Every structure is written in C-alpha cells, then in structure tokens.
Amino acid sequence: MSLDRLKERLDQIASRVPVVRGRGEEATKQALVLPMLDALGYDIWNPVEVCPEYDADFATRKGSQKERVDLAVLVDGAPRIFLEVKSIDTA
Fold first, then answer.
1. 61 Cβ neighbours under 8 A, 6+ residues apart
2. CA–CA separation, 69 vs 81, rounded Å?
3. Torsions phi, psi of 71, nearest 5?
4. What is the pLDDT of residue 74?
5. Are 36 and 13 in contact (CB under 8 A)?
6. What is the pLDDT of residue 26?
7. CA distance 3 to 91
8. Which residues on neighbouring strands pair with residue 75, listed in sequence order?
9. Is residue 90, in this structure, part of any structural domain at all?
10. Is residue 68 part of a domain?
11. Cβ atoms 67, 56 nearer than 8 A
C-alpha cells in the first residue's frame, strides 16, 4: 500500500472519532483500532495474526486467572504488539 493510500485510510478512520465518542470500549476497538491494524496490513480476521483476549503471561494474575490483553498482534506465531483498548473517552 502506498503512503498516500495509507494516509487516506487513516484519515477515514480518524473521521469516525466523533461518532465513537460515548459508545464505549468495544465501539472504539471495532471502529478505530481494528481498522487501523487492517490499514497497517495485519489480517484482523485471522486469530493467528491478530488474537483477541490474548493471555498475557507477563502480567500479574487475578487470583488463579491470567491477565489478558484485548488484542495481540503475532508475527510468525510470536506476539509482537499488545493492545489494551479503552474507550476513546477514557483519559
């Protein structure tokens, strides 16, 4: 993808910000975060590449459960990017 096309996609995603405000974390993930990962070339529909609710073995545990991050981007099967999504309204 050319840089001009990437900029167009990111501008399109950014234009959704006013609509997403006040709609919570899931709307932020669906309308902003996942499309941004897609624009960057990640296959958001492939859980081997963009894995939701990824067990974060580096995080502290809650009781006997592992902490999870909202999304992990895996490259060659190894996690490279961890995302904890919050509502766009969260400071």
1. 67
2. 10
3. -145, 145
4. 96
5. yes
6. 94
7. 30
8. 78
9. no
10. yes
11. yes
In whole angstroms, give the CA distance from residue 88 to residue 26.
10
**Predicted pLDDT at 68:** 87
The pair of structure tokens assigned to 10 is 């990111």
Following DSSP, what letter does each residue of 3-60 receive, concatenated?
HHHHHHHHHHHHTTHHHHTTS-HHHHIIIIIHHHHHHTT--TT-TTTEEEEEE-TTSP
Nearest to 90 by CA among 64, 70, 76, 72: 70
Q: How high is the mean pLDDT in each 10-residue block of the chain (91 residues)?
A: 88 94 94 95 96 82 76 94 92 62
In a domain, 91, yes or no: no
Which of 30, 36, 49, 25 is CA-nearest to residue 1?
36
Tell whether 38 is covered by a domain: yes
Rounded to an integer, what distance in angstroms lies between the CA atom of residue 35 and that of residue 8? 12
Domain count, the chain: 1
What domain range is 41 assigned to?
3-83
